[in-house]
Specification:
It is a single chain. With 228 residues, the chain is mainly alpha-helical. It has two domains: 79 residues; 135 residues, no CATH class. It is 81% helix and 0% strand. The protein contains eight helices and no strands. The radius of gyration is 28 Å and the shape is rod-shaped.
Length: 228
């Protein structure tokens, strides 16, 4: 597992704690968007330059210089807080999507198993057909769930995954429901005597081939163990 890299805001706080104001300011400028925030930082940069010049000239008392330095440090901390708030929403959105994807996978698996169990109970599926369906669906779905369960315990998702959130949202909220609904629709054809069991089985195999790769990509990407 790769080492967790500290966030820019955490780096800035660490620099400020070591009284390395110029390095903290440079880090903030590197992260700032063009506009008001960058203008504010440029003003702070000017204040820091004046402070350092006054300290060299010794035109003010050490107490006054310390007061100015503490005020500047507080301003930089405030900028670091704003930077963290700006970065937080995509990360939170990724975590929410991760949780919803896990719930959909779990709910879909339960619905499929209940559907099979009910139709076995009423005699629509024979024992052999029931075992065949469970054998077709369970290994793949259990593999997805185990991967998702392992990744669902993480506190964050990777920065690369956050860039793919629009695509992943579509796969979670559109792809997964279609995947599970299609399997249910196919299995329902057998109790209605519209398809033979062999036809339904072949369709399920084809669906697993077509959709299985997409679902596997979703699980692998969204529940990766990498950290931002």
């Amino acid at each position: 597992m790769s080492e967790i890299a500290p966030s820019p805001a955490r780096q800035i706080r660490s620099l400020l704690a070591d009284d390395r104001l110029r390095e903290a300011l440079a880090t903030l400028l590197a992260q700032a968007d063009p506009g008001t925030s960058r203008n504010d930082l440029l003003q702070l940069q000017g204040q820091l330059a004046d402070l350092e010049l006054d300290a060299l000239r010794r035109t003010e008392t050490p107490e006054h210089l310390d007061t100015r330095r503490n005020q500047l440090r507080d301003s930089l901390l405030h900028c670091a807080d704003r930077l963290e708030q700006k970065v937080a929403p995509p990360a939170q959105a990724g975590l929410a999507l991760q949780k919803n994807a896990f719930r959909l996978l779990l709910t879909g698996k339960i619905i499929l198993l209940l559907f099979i169990a009910f139709h076995f109970h009423i005699g629509a599926f024979s024992q052999g057909e029931t075992l065949t369906l469970i054998g077709l669906l369970s290994p793949v779905l259990i593999g997805y769930l185990l991967t998702a369960l392992q990744g669902n315990s993480s506190r964050a998702i990777s920065g690369e995954t956050q860039k793919k959130l629009p695509l992943l949202r579509g796969m979670v909220y559109i792809g997964l429901p279609i995947y599970f609904a299609a399997i249910l629709w196919i299995m329902r054809k057998v109790p209605l005597d519209e398809w033979t069991f062999e036809t339904a089985r072949n369709w399920i195999i084809g669906l697993e081939t077509a959709f299985g790769g997409l679902v596997a990509y979703l699980v692998k990407t969204l529940f990766s163990e990498e950290r931002p």
